[in-house]
Amino acid sequence: MTSRTDTQSWQFRTPRQHMLRWVGWFWLVALAVFCWNLMTEDTIWAFVADAPRQASDIGGRMLPPRWGYLNQLWQPLWDTLNIATLGTLIGVIIAIPVAFLAAGNTTPSRQFVRPLALLIIVTSRSINSLIWALLLVAIIGPGLLAGIVAIGLRSIGFVAKLLYEAIEEIDESQVEAVRATGASEAQVIDYAIIPQILPAFWGISVFRWDINIRESTILGLVGAGGLGLQLQSSLSTLAWNQVTVIFLVILATVVVSEWVSAKVRRAVL
Amino acid sequence: MTSEVTSSRTWKRPPVLLKDPRWRWTILLGSAVYLILAISSVEVDWFRVYEGLERGWKFIQGFLTPDFSSRWRDIQAGLVESLTMTLTSTVAGVLVSVPIGIGAARNLAPAPVYMFCRGIITLSRSFQEIIIAILLVAMFGFGPFAGFLTLTFASIGFLSKLLAEDIEDCDSAQIEAIRATGAGWWQVVNYAVQPQVMPRLIGLSLYRLDINFRESSVIGIVGAGGVGATLNTAIDRYEYDSAGAILIIIIAIVLVVEYSSSYIRRWVQ
Q1: Helices (H), ranges, chain A
Q2: Do B16 and A251 lie within an 8 Å CB cutoff?
C-alpha cells in the first residue's frame, strides 16, 4: 500500500499551520503565566498552605447540621420564592415591549428606538443581579422590595434579548397574510406575531424563573431578604452547622425549580 | 380547520396552550391566589422608598457624570484582579475539564469513570459561584486566589458538561473509521474525536471566559477579590459617581468580551 520511495509521510497539518498553532499556543501560555504572576502577587501562601486544615476545621463545624434551625427557614424560603416569582413577573412585563421595540421587524424606528432598546437590554444583562441588589438596597433600603426589583431589572435584558431574537425569526408570510386581510398594526401583532412566539415566550420566562430562584437564594447576602439574609447572619456568627442546613435547603430548592422548569418547558416547546 | 362550524358564525380564537378548560381555570385561579398571598406578604416601608428616591436620583446623576479619577487606584487594582482571575481560571478550568469531559462521555468512557465524572459535574453545577466563594474564602483567605479557585471550580462543571454532550453527539462513523485502522483509545480520541469537538471547545472556552468575567465582578462582594469589592466599598460610602464609573467600566468590558468572543467563535466554527 505505502510506497517507500518518497520520503514524505502523511502529516496532520502543513508545516505552516503547525507553526501558526505553535505560536498561538505559546502566546496563550505566556499570557496565562503573566496573569497568574500578577494575580498571585499579593497572595499569602501560608494561608493557602493552611487551607486543608481550615477545610477540615470548617467541615468539622458544619457537621452535624443543626436540623432544628430548619423551622426558622420556612419564612425566608417563602420570601425567596416570592422574590424570584414577582421579580420574574416584573421583568417579563417590562421585557415584552422592550423586545418588540428591539426586534428589527417590529421596531417603529431603526435609527432611534432600536439602539435605545438594545442599550436597555445590554445594561440590564451586563450587571449581575447581586450588584443590582447592592445598588437597590443602598437606594430603597433593605428588604424584599429591593430583591424583587433587582431580580426584575436583571430579567429584563435576558428575557427581552431571547424574545426579540424569537420575534426576528418568525415566519413573515403569516404577517403578510394577516396584513392582507386589512388588519391594523396592533391586530397584526396580536394575530400573526404573538401566536408564533408564544411557546418561546413561555419557555424563556420559565427558564428565567428557574435562574432567578437560584439567584434570589443569595440576594440576602447584601440585605435584599430571603434565605441569603439567614445565610449572612449565620456566617457572621460563625454558626457553620446552620450554614449547612441553609445550603441543603438552597440545593433542594434549586433542584425542585430546575425540575419544574424542565417539565414546563418540555410541555410548552 | 378542525373547529366545527356552528350556526352562529363568529370565530373564536382557540386556546394556544392548555386545551382543557378545567386545567386552564385551575392554573389561573391558583396563580391568582398565589399572587395575592405573595404580594400581601411583602412588607414595604413606603416612606423609606420615598426617601430613597432622592438617593436613586443621585445615583442616576452619578452614573451620568461618572468619576473615574478620585478612586482610580482602587478601580485599577480591582480590574487587574478581575481580568487576571478571569483568564487564569478559564485556562485552568479548560485544562481540568477536558479529561473530565472525556470521562463523562458515554461513548468513550467505561461506566465507573462515567459515573465518577458525572458526579463531579453535578457537584460543580449545583452550587452557585457565590456560595463556593464563601467557602473558599473561609479556607484560603481573602483575595483573588480564592476567586480563581471559585471560577475554576464553576468552569469545570459548565465546560465538562457541554464538552461531554458534544463528544456524545460526535459523528460515530468517523470514530468507527479510525478504530477500523487499528487505532488505540488515545488515537481514537486524538484523530477522530478531537478534530470534531475542537471548534466547539474553543467556542465554549470563550463563552466561559465571558461568563467568568461577569462573575469575577461579583464574587468580590464576599471577599474573593476583583472589582466587585471596589464597587461594594464605593456603594457603602455612598460614592455614587465612583460606583457609576465602575459599572460603566464593567458594562464596557462585558460588551467588548462578548462581541470579540462571538466574533472569534463565528470565525472558528
Answers
A1: 15-39, 45-49, 51-62, 74-102, 113-126, 129-140, 144-168, 172-180, 185-188, 194-216, 227-236, 240-268
A2: no
Give per-residue pLDDT as tens, B90-146: 999 999 999 999 888 888 888 889 989 888 888 888 788 888 888 888 888 888 888
DSSP A137-158: HHHH-SSHHHHHHHHHHHHHHH
- Kindly report the length of chain A: 269
Q: How far is A125 from chain B (nearest CA, A)?
A: 9
Beta-carbon separation of A140 and B48 below 8 A: yes
Task: Tell me the whole-structure pTM to 2 decimals.
Answer: 0.81
Query: Hey, what's the cell of A256?
Result: 425542585
Q: What is the ipTM of this complex?
A: 0.77
Q: Are B121 and B114 in contact (CB under 8 A)?
A: no
CA atoms within 13 A on the CB side of B144: 28
Cα A197 from Cα A163, distance rounded (Å): 8
B-chain CB neighbours of A54 within 8 Å are 138-140
Rounded Cα–Cα distance for residues A9 and A46 (Å): 53
